[in-house]
Amino acid sequence: MTTLAAETTTLAQLIERQLAPKVTAIDLEGEYPEDFLRALGQFGGFAGVVSPEYGGSGKGISDTIATMAQVGESCLSTAFLVWCQTACARYLQLSDNAALKAEFLPALASGRQLGGTGLSNTFKSCCEIERFLLSAKRVDGGYEVNGTLPWVSNLGDEHVFVTGSPVDGDGRLVFFAARCDQPGFKLVDGVDFTALEGTRTLACQFRKVHIADARVLAHPDDSTEYLARIQPGMILAQLGMGLGLIRDCIRLIERVGKTHQHINCYEDDQADELSAALAGAETETFRLAARLDAGVPPEERAAVFTEILKLRLAGGELSLRAANAAMLHQGARGYLRTATAQRRLREAYFIAIVTPALKHLRREIARREAAVN
Questions:
Q1: Concatenated DSSP letters of 34-73
Q2: Could you give the CA distance from residue 330 to residue 164 in angstroms, rounded to a whole number?
C-alpha cells in the first residue's frame, strides 16, 4: 500500500493521483481500488460517521456525503465503496454494543479494516418486496445463521459486514456483524454486471455460521428501534453518489458545448437547467444531513424519513436525467467503450436500482402518504 494519503493535503489531490488513473480499469476490468480506499481511510474519509471515542472525527454524515460526492465525480464504483464502508461503520456506531464498537470502529474509520453492508434483502423483506434469505436460530451464546445473500459489496477474505436475519420461532430480526473468514461462511463470485464491477460484489453463503452475542448489534427485542435508527442515514448517504455523478455529467455537457452548442442547444436538458436542479438537491441533502447529525426528536422521525425518501427518489431521477443528457450532448464521442459519458449512463442506472430502487421508493412514499390521508 502506498503512503500518498500522508503526503496529500487535499482530497482532490488524493483522487487525482491515486484514483483517476485507475477509473477505466475499475470500470472495464473490475479492478478493486483497495489502495485508494485504504489511503482515503488514512486521510479521514471514513471518519465522519464515527465518534472521536472510537477513532473517528465525529463530523457527521454531512462530511461523509461530501467526501462521497467528490469521489463520485471521478468514479461511482469507488463512491459506492465509500458508502459501503461508512454505512458499515455507522451501523456499528449506532448500536448499543460498546465492545463491538471498540473492536471494529477504529480500524473501519482509518481504513485498516474494510467493510460492507448486507442489508438489502433485510430492508426489502421488511417492506414485503421479497422473502428473507437468511434465517437465524438462537443457540447458546449467540445465533446459528443459514442461507445465502446474492449480492453484498466491498467484501474480501478479511472484510467484515453487517446484515440482519429473522430469528426462528420469533419472527423478529437480529442484526449482526459477520467476518468473511469465519467458519461456515463462504464468498462466491457468480455474476458479471454491466457496471460497478470493481466493487467486490459477491454472494455470501452461511452454513451453520455461529454469530456470538459479542457480534450482535441488535437482538430481536431492540431490532425495530435499531432499524429506525440506521435506515434514514443509510438512504440519505446514497445521495453522495448521485451528487458526484451529476456534477461530472454537467461538466461533460459544458465541455462539448464549447464546440457543439450550435447543435446541442436543441437537446431537451441543458447544463444551466441541470445545475439549478443540482443546487437544489445539494441544499436539501445537506439540510437533512444536518438534521440527522443533530438528532431528530421521536415525534418528527416519520416526517423526516419521508422527506429523505422523496429526496433520494428525486436524486435518482436527476442522476438518470443528467447522465442521459451527457450522453446525448457528447454524441458519438461518448459512445466509445472507454468514454466517460457511456460509463456515467451505466452508473446512473445503478443509482436507480440499488436498494432502495426508485420503484421501491415510490411504493414506500405512496404507502406513507396513504397512511397519513
A1: HHHHHHHHHHTTTGGGS-GGGT-----HHHHHHHHHHHHT
A2: 43
For residue 359, give the C-alpha cell.
420503484
SS3 state at 206: strand
Assigned fold of 4-114: Butyryl-Coa Dehydrogenase, subunit A; domain 1 (1.10.540)
- Strand, helix or coil for residue 151: strand
Helices and strands in the chain: count of H runs, count of E runs: 14, 8
Helix intervals (H) in 184-300:
220-237, 239-264, 271-294
Of 202, 141, 142, 129, which Cα lies nearest the Cα of 176? 142
The CATH class of the 238-372 domain is mainly alpha
CATH, range 118-221: 2.40.110.10
pLDDT band at 1 (very low <50, low <70, confident <90, very high): very low
Q: Which residues contact 39 (CB under 8 A, 6 or more apart)?
A: 1, 2, 3, 4, 5, 8, 14, 18, 111
Per-residue cell: 228: 429506525
Give pLDDT tens digits for 38-90.
Answer: 999 999 999 999 999 999 999 999 999 999 999 999 999 999 999 999 999 99
> What residues contact residue 355 under an 8 Å CB cut-off, 6+ apart?
119, 120, 123, 124
The DSSP-derived string for 152-179 is: E-S--TT-EEEEEEEBTTT-SEEEEEEE
Q: Which of 323, 347, 222 is nearest to 269 (CA)?
A: 323
The domain ranges of the chain are 4-114, 118-221, 238-372
103 contacts 109 by C-beta, under 8 angstroms: no
> β-strand 115-118 against 160-166: which pairing, if any?
parallel
